[in-house]
Amino acid sequence: MDRECLIGTEDIHALVREIQNGSREAFMTIVGAFQQRVFMMAYSMLRNKEDALDVVQETFLRLFQKAGQFKEGCNFQGWLLQITRNLSVDYYRKNTRKKREFESPKSLDRLQVAAGPDPASSSAGEMRDVFSRGIDKLASRQRMVFVLRHVDELQFNEISETMNISVGTVKSLHFKAVQNLRKWLRPYMGITS
User: Fold this and answer.
1) Which of 1, 81, 70 is nearest to 35 (CA)?
2) Which pLDDT does position 124 carry in this prediction?
3) Closest CA to 111 of 63, 51, 163, 189
4) Is the pLDDT assigned to residue 25 strictly greater than 90?
């Protein structure tokens, strides 16, 4: 069970108020509860572990500095992931010219952020690798929606709020992502038509 599932909305609002008063313990509780989701958002946009970790650190620094800007009654996770999204976009824009010759792309599976146990057989391991490569091939917005929906298990309305796009656009991006993954995975599953 995710840690954030153990913290109710009222508890989160209380923790944010404590953070506004400088509580380090409240801050660390929020970090522990949301760190993986923030990482997944950053990684789904940047596709690089180190860059994503930089954005995670910056996201929580911003949370500590700007906790007073959070409005009670709003979706805290959506607010936090919106900060992450904005920082990821800024980070990407600032670093697009940077050469990455020594970096190798890492799949979600290799980062152990996708759910599921280690594959029992080499064919299952190959299929997971093919699936991860398929996710990597998706257009960035499709990939982000797919990851938020299936890894972070957010509802379409939560994804809409997080990405600042309509629910209809979220559903369309999700549909396209699933269609693309099916198309790319067909040959590996022995489906010819």
Assistant:
1) 81
2) 62
3) 51
4) yes
Say whether both 125 and 88 belong to one domain. Answer: no
Query: How much is the pLDDT for 104?
Result: 43
Q: What is the mean pLDDT of residues 121-149?
A: 77
Domain that holds residue 29: 1-101
Name which residue leads in pLDDT, 114 or 50: 50
Q: How confident is the model at residue 64 (pLDDT cuts 50, 70, 90)?
A: very high
Whether residues 79 and 92 fall in one domain: yes
Number of structural domains (the chain) is 2
The enclosing domain of 143 has a CATH number of: 1.10.10.10
Name the domain boundary from 101, 130, 147: 101
- Rg of the chain over CA atoms, in angstroms? 18
